[in-house]
Amino acid sequence: MDIDTRLLRYFTVVCEEGQLTAAAARLFITQPTLTKQIRQLEAQLGVQLFQRSRSGVTPTPAGNALAGHAAALLESWDGALRATRQAATEAGGTLRVGFEGSTINLVGLRTMEEFARRMPGWQVQMRQNNWFDATSGLASGDIDLALWHAPAAMAEEFGTAQLGIEERWAALSVEHPLAARESLDFEELLDEPFVVIPVEAGHWRDYWSGAEERGGRPVRIGAVAHNADEWLAAVACGQGIGFAPESMNRLASRPDVAYRPVRGLSPSQVGLYWLRERPLTPAMAAFIRSCRATVGIGPAGQTASNGAG
């Protein structure tokens, strides 16, 4: 029987936390998603792993038996991955970098040439972030680094190499009455329908609908988009407005979408993120330095210069 190591990691965190809510927060996924994953593991094994109560969850005898082996299995698998990546480092390999929609345009030929100079024989594979995974594939090991526009608090949870700071702007149909304005106030947008991303995206759904600035006031959902193209199309069609990095005004411009500054909305920390418990590999460090030397942040595309070398 083959078991996804991600399910074992989820199971281990639930055992450590004793609560699904706390475990989901630590894993950066929603509680319903975590519950679904635990039930999937139970179905595959054909046993009940947890006793559920109002105070939390407790491993069953079967759960305790699995917990006694899961940590060793995961440690062994992580060791195998480290050995594999180390061998690849010595012989050349592929660095997998996730990106958000149009932000791929922040990374261009100059970045790749700089990386190739630092890591001869290596290639970079760019992958669009998965909106159904709050870690964009970092937790599953599908990517090595994620290029994010993120709240400042993300630096407390992940390893971070900051590239710059960028404002969040409103995106709306050019037919929207507010599109005639040069700038907007956040309070004006509270009752507007929003094009949101899937609930599985966890904290990202909240962030891109301005949840912190709303002070508990719920967002009105006009449409749910499953990828960046769907999101932009829904905005253009007037199904709702949304917040986006300021750079989308130049990187993803289209005649039926207007981008406007928003007063009262905190900016994003633009950077490369990785799992805090995973040490930086030489390839990861080289890509960070390459981005710091070449990536432009902000409306004029200023080149970041913090620590490039």
Report strand order across the widest sheet: 4-3-5-13-6
The CATH level-2 architecture of the largest domain is identified as 3-Layer(aba) Sandwich
- Tell the overall outline: globular
Instruction: Give the low-confidence spans.
Output: 299-309
User: CATH superfamily of the largest domain, please?
Assistant: Periplasmic binding protein-like II
Number of domains: 3
CATH domain fold name of the largest domain: D-Maltodextrin-Binding Protein, domain 2
| Element pattern in H and E | HHHEEHEHEEEEEEHHEHEHEEHEE
Mean pLDDT: 87
Please write the CATH class name of the largest domain: Alpha Beta
- Please count the beta strands (DSSP E, at least 2 residues each): 15
Number of contiguous helices: 10
Largest sheet: 5 strands, mixed
Q: Return Rg in Å.
A: 21 Å
GO molecular function: DNA binding; DNA-binding transcription factor activity
Pfam family, one: LysR_substrate
Keywords: DNA-binding, Transcription, Transcription regulation
InterPro entries: LysR_HTH_N (IPR000847), LysR_subst-bd (IPR005119), WH-like_DNA-bd_sf (IPR036388), WH_DNA-bd_sf (IPR036390)
Walk me through the structure.
By secondary structure, the protein is of the alpha/beta class. The protein has 3 domains: 5-86, Arc Repressor Mutant, subunit A, CATH 1.10.10; 92-165 and 269-303, Periplasmic binding protein-like II (D-Maltodextrin-Binding Protein, domain 2); 168-266, D-Maltodextrin-Binding Protein, domain 2 (3-Layer(aba) Sandwich), CATH 3.40.190. It is 36% helix and 24% strand. The strands form 5 sheets. Strands 4-3-5-13-6 form a 5-stranded mixed sheet, covered by helices on one side. A 4-stranded mixed sheet has the order 8-12-7-11, with helices on one face. Strands 1-2 form a two-stranded antiparallel ribbon. β1 and β2 form a beta hairpin. α1 (5-17) crosses α3 and α2 (20-27) crosses α3 (31-45). The longest helix is centred in the N-terminal third of the chain and has 31 residues, at 61-91. It is globular, with a radius of gyration of 21 Å.
